[in-house]
Specification:
Elements: H1 7-21, E1 24-26, E2 33-35, H2 37-46, H3 58-70, H4 80-96, E3 102-106, E4 109-114, H5 116-119, H6 132-144, E5 148-154, H7 162-182, E6 190-194, H8 207-213, E7 216-222
Helix pairs in contact: 4-6, 6-7
């Protein structure tokens, strides 16, 4: 599994992997894997900035792969991995151009940054109606490229308490993930986590900066 992670994140992940595995739950309303806020808030903060996939141990990753393969989704291999992600990256950029979603390529991974000024109002986990057509386009591409894991990670700005923002970020991630499932994206591919105020990408001192921090990031990783 290819990841671009700093050494301190890798060490923190290894230290907490066993504990985190026991804190995983399944949302019965949509079948999505998520983490329990009350059990893992402090632990998630210790590895702030890591993608949701990096928070799981090898056993958890293998179980996830087994679920994906069991859902009839094929794995990628060899040179086909890069080419597959290249095509998906190109199609996502074409589909989402001008819609406020920032796309970054990190090795074989693709990261979609969906900022709060187009996704959520401050303090809310309700998707803005105007953003739903954009998520429809995202779902269309995800369904065209099924051999990818989908890690959905929510973030909040600094308004409110740490506990409140951790819960809010988790609900935002679930809102995006649940909408994608409603658009026929297979739940077996999706993992959900909330990171609260961790890993801000802008200042929290201005409304504009808080809107950028109030976001959901979707990381697409190849199934190998």
């Amino acid at each position: 599994m290819r990841k671009i992670l700093s050494a301190h994140i890798l060490l923190a992940t290894a230290a907490f992997a066993v504990v985190l595995a026991g804190c995983e739950t399944t949302d019965t309303s949509n079948g999505l894997k998520t983490r329990s806020n009350t059990q893992t808030g402090a632990l998630i903060g210790a590895v702030a900035g890591a993608a949701a996939g990096a928070l799981s141990n090898k056993k958890g990753e293998q179980a996830r792969k087994n679920a994906v393969l069991g859902a009839g989704i094929g794995a990628l291999a060899g040179a086909g991995v890069g080419a597959y992600m290249d095509r998906q990256n190109k199609d996502l950029r074409a589909k989402l151009e001008g819609h406020g979603v920032y796309i970054t390529r990190q090795g074989d991974n693709i990261v979609l940054n969906m900022p709060g000024d187009v996704t959520f109002s401050s303090g809310s986990a309700d998707l803005n109606a105007g953003f739903m057509p954009v998520l429809n386009d995202v779902a269309t591409i995800l369904n065209q490229y099924p051999s990818t894991y989908i890690d959905v990670v929510g973030y909040a700005d600094s308004q409110g308490s740490d506990a409140y923002n951790l819960d809010l970020s988790n609900r935002r991630a679930n809102a995006v993930a649940g909408y994608l499932v409603g658009q026929k994206v297979k739940a077996e591919r999706i993992y959900v986590a909330g990171m609260g105020e961790a890993n801000p990408i802008a200042t929290n001192a201005t409304p504009e900066g808080r809107a950028q921090n109030r976001r959901v990031e979707i990381t697409l990783r190849p199934v190998e």
